[in-house]
Amino acid sequence: MMIAPVGGAKHRLLPSCSLIALLAALALPVQATAAGTRAGSTISNTATASFDSGGGPTTIDSNRVDLLVDELLDVTVDSSNPADVPTTPGATGQVLTFSVTNNGNGVEAFALSTVANAGGDDYDPAVTQIYLDNGDGLFDAGTDTLYTAGANDPTLDPDESIAVFVVTTTPGTVVDGNRGIVSLVAAARTGTGTPGTSFAGQGEGGGDAVVGATGADGEDAGAFVVSAATVALVKSASITNPLGTADPIPGATITYTIVATVTGSGSVSGLAVTDNIPADTSYVPGSITLGGSPLTDAADADAGDYNGARINVALGTVAGGQSRTISFQTMIH
Amino acid sequence: MRPALLLMLAAALPGPAFAANQVALDNKVFVERVSTDADGKQRILLEEPKLVVPGDRLVFVLNYRNVGAQAADKFVVTNPLPAAVRFAGAGDTEPLVSVDGGKQWGRLDELSIATADGAHRAAQPADVTHIRWAFQKPIPAGATGKLMFRGIVK
Q1: Which tens digit of pLDDT belongs to each residue from B14-54?
Q2: Residue B1: inside a domain, yes or no?
Q3: How far is the C-alpha of A84 from the C-alpha of A225, rounded, in Å?
Q4: d(CA A324, CA B40)
């Protein structure tokens, strides 16, 4: 915006234009950042001419032209999660992290919103909250600020960024390998639109605000991937008896084999296999094995125990694609 | 307008300053916009700078006129570049430039910048701090001319 569209005689009459220009330059420092010259700065231009018309060297100033720099509205949103974030069915408090950067040249507030149903994925994460980072880049609901649209829109200086956390719940119906995408949208409060759209008088420093190349709104997507695991137990029995046959007669020994197979991209934790000793049989002491290695009956450092009614083998965390084989023996009364 | 201007100048300024106005130097700034018409042809328009944002191309135009009765000798026009503007050429007006605040002058390709490690690198348009046109011949009485350069808003 030209605030001093001079070019006529008026300014040539000013006796000390250069002094005025100097004062103006001192009073209005021009900040240049990556986002460009700060909105509200004044670009002042004055040329001088020197010559000699016979009376000795003479110097004159031109008129001064002052240009007020208007505000460019530009913002970008970037996902801070380099890869899909693992989640599990029904999990709450599932966080995607984004960075919102003011690429404009003026202080600007940005409205934040999310899009979870744009398609291109297998399910829609349910967005429960948006949090504004306190500066450490780490999500902590206790110290970060809960965002309420219109109430605490983040206000960013030129080139300033803020981390934004989108908190979601994963539906209980999802299955292993499902992806759910959530996009964060940041839009300049002054206005958005096609590049070049201007908002008269709404720029920082009294100029206009002009939509830049980003359209004054930015968007980026982050994604969750369901990392679930399921456990399948297969139990089999084989019988040996003193007769050397496989008949279940009194005195026969039954060897039970339980294979726990974990499938899926995730893992299960705290997996334990428990089996009650059937009626009319008695447990053969010291017969529990895990992966072919014997375990003691006592509840002690090893994974297995027998408490008089059932055997138990604690398998702990087992990743998808792995299996564990447990066996124990009973004797028919 | 010019006769009226002369009259005002003569009336407003005391004697010694009269000589100072034997040459008039008029400064205008335009924004260069490229628009593409329906046929896909690009047109470059010079607009009044109603809106100025970082990245805009500015065209600085200096019109001079020797309004005195004598020729103006040793005519030199100097334009310090505003700090927020990066020099982007001066067309065929071939000015001298300075990259050190007006101490040394030369063609851009003759100048260098001292780097932090004591070496020198060739000066770039972004280094330009001042632009100067030094005329070899006197400007005759009544003669006019136009100088221009381009700059990009940082």
Answers
A1: 434 344 468 999 999 999 988 888 888 888 888 888 889 99
A2: no
A3: 6
A4: 70
B74–A65 C-beta distance less than 8 A: no
Instruction: Inform me whether the C-beta atom of residue B28 falls under 8 Å from chain A C-beta atoms.
Output: yes
How far apart (Å, rounded) are the C-alpha atoms in residues B77 and B113?
24
Please check whether residue B47 lies inside any domain of the structure: yes
Measured between CB atoms, does A83 come within 8 Å of chain B? Answer: no
Strand runs labelled E in chain B: 23-36, 42-47, 57-66, 73-80, 85-87, 96-98, 112-114, 120-122, 130-134, 144-153
Domain that holds residue B95: 23-153
Q: What's the CA gap between A54 and A38, in Å, rounded? A: 45
- Nearest-Cα distance to chain A for B108, in Å, is 19
A104 Cα distance to chain centroid = 23
What CA–CA distance (Å, rounded) separates A122 from A219?
A: 20
CA–CA min distance A155, chain B (Å): 20
User: What percent helix, strand, coil does chain A show, rounded to 5?
Assistant: 5, 50, 45
Report chain A's mean pLDDT, rounded to a whole number.
Answer: 89
Same fold, A73-226 and A229-332: yes
d(CA B6, CA A35) in angstroms, rounded, equals 45
Tokens of B17: 């300053």
Q: Which CATH architecture has domain A229-332?
A: Sandwich (2.60)
**Confidence at residue A33, expressed as pLDDT on a 0 to 100 scale:** 57
Tokens of B57: 């191309």
**Is the CB of residue B132 less than 8 Å away from at least one CB of chain A?**
no
Average pLDDT of chain B is 86
Q: For residue A7, count CB atoms less than 10 angstroms from its CB and return exposed for 0-12, middle for 13-18, buried for 19 or more.
A: middle
Domain boundaries, chain A: 10-69, 73-226, 229-332
Which residues contact residue A210 at a Cβ distance below 8 angstroms, ignoring those fewer than 6 apart? Answer: A70, A71, A72, A73, A196, A197, A198, A199, A203, B51, B53
In chain B, which stretches have pLDDT less than 70?
Answer: 1-21
Share of chain A above pLDDT 90, in %: 83
Q: CB contact, 8 Å: B88 with chain A?
A: no
